């Protein structure tokens, strides 16, 4: 499990790069274009690698990490970067794919663009393939337009960002940022209680490489990522793109109640130690808490036993998360949920274990990286926070990081209905490319 | 699934046997004895055939139907009845084991004693092995004491009474009583959603025989069963044994909520269609209902998805049961639970499917069979209702049936702590044997 992260905006002071809060884009960025049709084609072409189920039939994506569908998408990514002439391609110890393209000056760490090709079980086609395929499109277009950057460029497909099949989420990027070890990530457990691990799944698809795995062994000058917004800010404002000015805090908890076995029909109501009743009360309290604290909350997993037709449930495990833009309120939500759970445990005579699996404090990205995105957006964009974690909320712990939002239809995500138009996807890739070129200019000027 | 059973005390009028409400036991019953040590030994000897888990370690039993442990216990039963000289032994089409021992008059249907060797996942050693092994002990003792009955005697190990691995419960006895078909029983689905079926499991352990499967093709003169009480009536009254004068009603429901996929962190609280929140509210309402209706209720199973770390739950399925001694109140509980669920579905914008999987109306056993048990108990026993269903609540639909209670420590059942003393087990077997001899005398006198 990811040891309770306590992340702020960044873990160390930003490096001494020359800041350039110009209103203008760098010269190379001003003329940069991308191929909208090619990007759109690839988003939908790669969506074929999806588990066949109701989500796929509805036009969504079901590509859990470490599955054969994940392998197919990974192989495609490898083939694309190889064909594009990457000077280096490697898979690291936790399955992340890194492709590096030469710059004019190869002694400096690359500027990276990355996201993830895995999805949740009932996901859409954009979170996070848009971030990977958009980045690929930027490199393709740069090559076609004869744009050579000062710094090398890296394209990254991060492993198990979603945590949908194996917990924790933010898999390889958390290892990259020093928040988790390779061994711990390999031991990531299946959410369905089957006992499968991410490490075994990655081995089974041939995606455990030699490394390097961390910022220390593979430093980046910066990391940029496109993501669908997953909220309605851009849509409401009529803006196709945005710069992400920070993220809301998230705490995830695993709660297990231990009761006592007993006969479902014959046991007196008084004296029961029914864990499913207890867990149900916690779930309704956790939902109420979101309204009273003006935050958000979700119970995302429940497992209960013994499985059968005639038993009081003697153990129930739930996973829930609370979200808030303010740290004090976030921590208050977590404490309140735990207190409510303890009260319910006491009322029903239950044993209780609770652990905070993940704690991401609210924070902001690096101002000079955000500024590069902001200039790339111009008046077509606006600032908005992200309400969840991404690979960029890990890379920002170790290197200048910023993120680009693409407008999302109705703010829907993690659903087959997730949608961004061709135009909005293209504009987000254009902003990504311009932001990288802006940052590249900063490096050139400041180095 | 078992098509909503609507059972009353019996489905047709009791046959025209001569009633004999004597205070005395039949002559053969008056001297009958059983071997307490042998019975106690076999209860614990056979408990070795249990899945190795925490229940087994705690002295309980985990012998789910159709598993290798079930096969081992079945093989032992087959060997015992064969060694005892059964004139007929067969396995029927749904795995029930029938052994028949000759009487003085072989043209009449046998008097049966039976129960089940399967247990719930976290069960005890007595429910229902005591019923099978106690019956076996009666036949052994009769043989040793040279007691020959008028009617033949049948020993029965019924299949999947518990419904713990595969739904519905009361497996082979429901087929015997014409409440379910062989094909439907083979199609019984695994409660864990794995898609496994009872039929495939029975085939895998070699326990699908040729039949006969029903009362029509294998009639019984009567059916008697020992069961641990699963309540505290006998314990409170200081009685080691009891006659079961009837059963409480049970309705089981399967409820599925359909909502919408969405991101756990980013989706606005307003507008969510969170099925797990909805199901949790139903579970707490179902619990409350037991108190307000002065009945009982339990939610016995929950499954929810999509499985993952970051998704609002878009489908949740629960199974719950309500119990009451009075039919009108039972049906009111069922209707109220359904109304509450519809209100919650409406509040959360959920689609809902509900079906009543099983409906057992409260009823009573056959008076002349109960009287045989009552006389066998004498002043050592008392009458008490059972609060759940047994194989006998199926056989009573087609033939005179009664049941013997053994005192249970603290009324605990479906738990490793389930316990009856050696003395109480022995006394229940003695009552079983005497009751059979009493009924045999009725048959002899009345035939």
Automatic annotation (TrEMBL), chains A, B:
Protein's name in the database: Uncharacterized protein
Lineage of origin: Eukaryota, Fungi, Dikarya, Ascomycota, Pezizomycotina
Domain of life: Eukaryota
SUPFAM superfamilies xrefs: Bacterial exopeptidase dimerisation domain, Zn-dependent exopeptidases
Keywords: Hydrolase
MF annotations from Gene Ontology: hydrolase activity, acting on carbon-nitrogen (but not peptide) bonds, in linear amidines
Keyword Coiled coil listed: no
The keyword Hydrolase is assigned to this record: yes
Gene3D superfamilies in UniProt: 3.30.70.360, Zn peptidases (3.40.630.10)
Family assignment from sequence similarity: Belongs to the peptidase M20A family.
């Amino acid at each position: 499990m990811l040891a309770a992260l306590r992340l702020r905006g960044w873990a160390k002071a930003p490096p001494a790069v020359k800041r350039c809060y110009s209103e203008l884009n760098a010269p190379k960025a001003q003329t940069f274009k991308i191929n909208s049709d090619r990007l759109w084609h690839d988003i939908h072409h790669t969506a074929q690698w999806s588990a066949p189920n109701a989500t796929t039939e509805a036009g969504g994506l079901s590509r859990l990490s470490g599955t054969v569908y994940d392998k197919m998408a990974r192989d495609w990514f490898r083939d694309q970067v190889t064909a594009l002439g990457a000077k280096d391609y490697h898979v690291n110890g936790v399955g992340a794919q890194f492709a590096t393209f030469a710059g004019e000056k190869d002694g400096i760490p690359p500027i990276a663009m990355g996201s993830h090709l895995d999805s949740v079980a009932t996901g859409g086609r954009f979170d996070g393939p848009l971030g990977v395929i958009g980045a690929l499109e930027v490199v393709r277009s740069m090559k076609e337009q004869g744009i050579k950057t000062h710094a090398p460029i890296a394209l990254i497909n991060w492993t198990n960002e979603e945590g949908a099949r194996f917990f924790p989420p933010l898999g390889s990027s958390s290892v990259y940022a020093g928040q988790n070890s390779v061994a711990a990530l390999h031991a990531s457990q299946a959410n369905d209680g089957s006992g499968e691990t991410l490490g075994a799944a990655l081995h089974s698809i041939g995606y455990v490489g030699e490394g390097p795995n961390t910022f220390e062994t593979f430093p980046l000058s910066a990391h940029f990522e496109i993501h669908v917004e997953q909220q309605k800010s851009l849509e409401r404002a009529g803006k196709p793109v945005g710069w992400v000015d920070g993220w809301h805090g998230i705490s995830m908890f695993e709660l297990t109640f231990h009761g006592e076995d007993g006969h479902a029909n014959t046991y007196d109501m008084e004296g029961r130690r029914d864990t499913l009743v207890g867990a149900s009360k916690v779930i309704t309290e956790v939902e109420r808490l979101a309204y009273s604290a003006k935050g958000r909350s979700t119970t995302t997993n429940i497992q209960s036993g013994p499985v059968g037709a005639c038993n009081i449930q003697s153990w129930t495990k739930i996973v829930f998360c609370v979200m808030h833009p303010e740290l004090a309120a976030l921590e208050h939500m977590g404490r309140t949920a735990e207190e409510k759970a303890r009260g319910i445990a006491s009322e029903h005579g239950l044993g209780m274990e609770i652990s905070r699996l993940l704690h991401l404090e609210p924070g902001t990205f690096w101002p000079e990286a955000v500024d590069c995105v902001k200039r790339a957006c111009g008046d077509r964009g606006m600032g908005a926070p992200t309400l969840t974690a991404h690979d960029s909320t890990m890379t920002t712990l170790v290197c200048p990081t910023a993120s680009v939002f693409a407008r999302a239809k109705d703010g829907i995500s993690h659903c087959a209905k997730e949608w961004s138009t061709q135009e909005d996807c293209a504009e987000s890739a254009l902003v990504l490319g311009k932001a990288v070129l802006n940052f590249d200019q900063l490096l050139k000027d400041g180095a």
